[in-house]
Amino acid sequence: MKGASNEFDKELFLAGEITPVFFGTALGNFGVDHMLDGLVEWAPAPMPRQTDTRTVEASEDKFTGFVFKIQANMDPKHRDRVAFMRVVSGKYEKGMKLRQVRTAKDVVISDALTFYGR
């Protein structure tokens, strides 16, 4: 689709001024590889997360995570909710208690799945 718009400018993208548009379909596996390659090539590496009181560095030993999405009813046979969490620091270990800061409650993750990305 070259020529349909201005040339891609990575600096404008990183500044949040422009958004690249990819065309494709996951059903036919058309264009997905171009989108993923574009994200790997252009997107910035994860940065430390700013909190209300301080910056959490990835090198810290204490486990912290950031829930960025909650998806319900992924399995029609069950009333489920799946929380997608980015590990910000430390290491998750099965059975560890986690503190939900907003509600001040401790939770234990029963079935954790790991997704890896570049």
Automatic annotation (TrEMBL):
Family annotation (InterPro entries): EF-G-like_DII, P-loop_NTPase, PrfC, Transl_B-barrel_sf
Superkingdom of the source species: Bacteria
Domain Elongation factor G-like positions: 62-112
Pfam entry (one): EF-G_D2
Membrane-crossing segments per the record: none
Keywords noted in UniProt: GTP-binding, Nucleotide-binding
Any GO molecular function: GTP binding
Claim: Acetylation is one of the keywords in the record: no
GO cellular component entries: cytosol
PANTHER family: PEPTIDE CHAIN RELEASE FACTOR RF3
UniProt name for this protein: Peptide chain release factor 3
Organism: Escherichia coli
Gene name tied to this protein: prfC_3
